[in-house]
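Tip: read the tokens left to right.
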């Protein structure tokens, strides 16, 4: 009997949206949303992103910047679609389409980036500057600023968790992770298997943001500029560099199980305990619908774990055996 792998990278990723899940596999993505009448609406499209086909997007460090921008744009588009479905207005949204919707998405994305810069760059710098009368060591000041930045981030995700819609979003976030873990652990994609899978995953966007905060502490540690305005400007200009390095780390975390990567991933996994919550079975069904629209998980299990899925087993819930 073939030895069964412990885990295998699938290449799919996702995002929680309002009452649903977005799953992406290469250029193909699907948004599955639970409609007010209980049905699951699935939107299936292609998204090629910036500089599609360009060799630039294959260069380490640089590719992370473009992937980050693509994720923001696609994520906003999927959130808007899910909001329309929840309001029962997805048909009207499809008819309208056009430049107005794209302009609105662009403006919202720019505003979101501006708010993030203010909250996680400008505010921590200002709060850290209050200690300058007591701390004369610039290296220590850089560490204090980085620590404040992490605290602000943790308080932010903890604070918004009290909002009802965000709590449900965190549960769908958990369902997204459970689906990916289910597949990558070599289990057939059933509600039963999804529910017993882990809601934490090393390739999560939460872990990516933690890497951004951690890398920024290291980079800013070596920047010594006297002018406060220049300090803030340099921090903003260095964010693409920070995002590029963080992308490579999160990419490595999703493909490697060595001890260094596991230790590096631990803080992000801990924070995921706040940004993911246990879903119910209906949420798992939505996540499965999104995965199945873009990913042939049965072929994946056969090619990587050595067995074909028995439909009768999927009904009975017993563990399948590997093929010889």
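Filled-in amino acids:
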């Amino acid at each position: 009997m073939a030895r069964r792998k412990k885990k295998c990278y699938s290449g799919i990723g996702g995002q929680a949206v309002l009452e649903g899940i977005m799953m992406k596999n290469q250029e193909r993505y699907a948004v599955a949303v639970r409609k007010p009448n209980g049905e699951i609406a699935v939107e299936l499209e292609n998204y090629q992103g910036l500089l599609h086909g360009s060799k630039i997007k294959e260069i380490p460090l640089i590719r992370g910047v473009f992937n980050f921008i693509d994720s923001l744009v696609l994520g906003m588009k999927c959130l808007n679609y899910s909001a329309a479905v929840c309001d029962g207005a997805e048909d009207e949204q499809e008819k309208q389409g056009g430049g107005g919707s794209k302009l609105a998405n662009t403006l919202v994305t720019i505003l979101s980036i501006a708010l993030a810069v203010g909250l996680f760059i400008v505010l921590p710098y200002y709060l850290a500057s209050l200690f300058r009368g007591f701390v004369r060591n610039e290296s220590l000041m850089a560490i204090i600023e980085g620590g404040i930045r992490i605290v602000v981030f943790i308080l932010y995700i903890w604070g918004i968790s009290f909002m009802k819609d965000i709590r449900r979003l965190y549960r769908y976030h958990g369902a997204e992770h459970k689906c990916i873990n289910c597949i990558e652990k070599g289990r057939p994609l059933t509600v039963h298997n999804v529910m017993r899978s882990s809601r934490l995953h090393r390739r999560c966007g939460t872990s990516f943001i933690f890497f951004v905060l951690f890398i920024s502490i290291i980079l800013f540690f070596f920047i010594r500029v006297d002018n406060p305005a220049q300090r803030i400007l340099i921090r903003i200009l260095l964010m693409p560099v920070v995002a590029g390095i963080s992308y490579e780390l999160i990419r490595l975390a999703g493909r490697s199980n060595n001890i260094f990567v596991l230790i590096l991933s631990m803080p992000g996994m801990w924070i995921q305990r706040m940004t993911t919550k246990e879903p119910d079975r209906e949420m798992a069904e939505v996540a499965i619908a999104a995965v199945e629209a873009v990913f042939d998980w049965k072929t994946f299990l056969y090619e990587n774990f050595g067995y074909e899925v028995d439909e009768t087993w999927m009904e009975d819930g017993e563990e399948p055996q590997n093929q010889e």
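The beta strands are 13-17, 20-25, 28-34, 40-46. The first strand starts at residue 13 and ends at 17.
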